[in-house]
Amino acid sequence: MQKEKKIEEMREEVLSAWKKLELDAKIAQMEKLEEEANAPNLWLNPEHAKEVNEELKRVADEVNEWQTIRTQIEDLGELLKLGEEDLAEEIGEQITACAEKLEELKKRLRFTGKFDHGDAILRITAGAGGTEAMDWAGMLERMYLRFFGRKGWTVSTLERTEGEEAGIKTAVYEVRGQDAYGNLKSEHGTHRLVRLSPFNADHLRQTSFSLVEVLPVVESGAVEIQEKDLRVDVYRSGGHGGQGVNTTDSAVRITHIPTGTVVAIQNERSQIQNRAKAMEILQGKLLQMQMEQEAESVDKLRAGKSAAWGQQIRNYVLQPYQLVKDTRTKFESKEPGKVLDGEIDDFIDSYLDKNNF
Fold it and tell me: DSSP labels for 168-226?
C-alpha cells in the first residue's frame, strides 16, 4: 500500500506541475519550432536559425524531462498492478529514483518571475580600492565562469576591461541556459571580501567590494525608450580583453539620461551590432530597475536608486577565519575555496527557497 500511495502522490505532483508550467502549451510551441527548424530555407538566415534551434532545445529539454518522469510514474503504477513479488525490490528502487528526480524537477516551480526561465546578462564591476578591488572582481569572474561551465550554459563575452596589475575593472557576459536568470538573480548586489592583502609587503587585512548586476535578456521593444532620453557616444574600441589591437571607431556607449544608466559595448564586430547589443542590455537594466523600485513604468524610475552599491548581499571572509555568509538568507559555508571554485548552488537554492515559500 505504501508504494501505491507514493506513486499516487507523485502522479498528483506531476499533474500539478504540468498545469503550473503550462506544458501542454509548451508541447505545441515545441512542435511549431520543430517545423520551423526543419524548414529547408531556415539557414538562409544563420542568425535566425541559431535562435530557433536554441529556443527549440530550451523548450524541448523542459518538456522532455516532465514527459519522461510522467511516463515512468505511470509505468511503475502498471508494474505494481501485476503483483509480481520478484519485482518488488526493483520497483521500490525505481520509485525512490523517481521521487528523487521529481524533487529535483520541482525546484523549477520556484521560478515564478516573468523572466526566470530566460537568459541573463551578468555584469561585474570592481569597487573603489584599486588593485585589491580589481583582483576581487577577477576572482568573482572566475567563480561565475566555473559555475556556468558546470551548468553547461553558453557564455558570450560582451565587454571586458582588465585591471592594470591584476583582475578586471569590469566584465559583461551574456549567459544562455535553462532558467539562467531565475538562478542568477540571487547574485545581484554587492559582494564583500575580507582577506590578508597579497598586494602589500605587510600583508594587512583588506576589505574589497565588487558589484554584480544580473539583468534579464529581453526582446527588442520590451521597454519603450524615447530617443530624446538617450545619448549615444561612439569611441575607439580595442581588441578583446582591452588590448590595443584592431582598433576601430565601433564601440558604443549609450546613456539613459533620466536615470543616468550607462551601457558600453565594444566586443561586437560593427558599430551597428554594438549599438543593438547595448540597447538590449539597457532594456534589461531598466526592467531590473523597475522591479527593484516597483515602478509602474520606465518614466517613473528614479536616478541613483538601484544597482545596490550599499549593503552587501554576501560576505567572503578568508582571514582571520574561513566563512562565506549570505546576509539575506543567513546561509553559510565554511569552505570558501569551494565557493570561489563555482560551487554556489546551495546559496542560490537557499535564496530561492526563502523567496518562494
Answer: EEEEEEEEESTTHHHHHGGG-EEEEEEEE-SSSTT--EEEEEEEEEEEE---TTSS---
pTM, two decimals, is: 0.74
φ/ψ of 215, rounded to 5, equals -120, 145
Q: What is the pLDDT of residues 169-213, one digit of tens each?
A: 999 999 998 889 999 999 999 999 999 988 877 778 889 999 999
What's the pLDDT tens digit per position in 60-95? 988 999 999 999 999 999 988 887 777 888 888 999
Residue in this structure with the C-alpha cell 560576505, named with its chain if needed: 315
Residue 356 pLDDT grade (very low, low, confident, very high; cuts 50, 70, 90): low
Q: How far is CA 302 from CA 176, 214, 297, in A?
A: 30, 19, 11
C-alpha cell at 88: 518488488
Which residue shows C-alpha cell 564583500?
192
Distances (CA, A) of 14 to 39, 51, 92, 96, 357: 34, 30, 19, 15, 19
Q: In this structure, how many other beta carbons lie within 10 angstroms of the beta carbon of residue 29?
A: 17
* Rounded Cα–Cα distance for residues 160 and 137 (Å): 11
- Bridge-based pairing of strands 189-196 and 312-317 is parallel
Check: CB of residue 25 under 8 Å from CB of residue 147: no
State the DSSP code for 118.
Answer: S
User: What span, in angstroms and rounded, lies between the C-alpha atoms of 214 and 123?
Assistant: 7
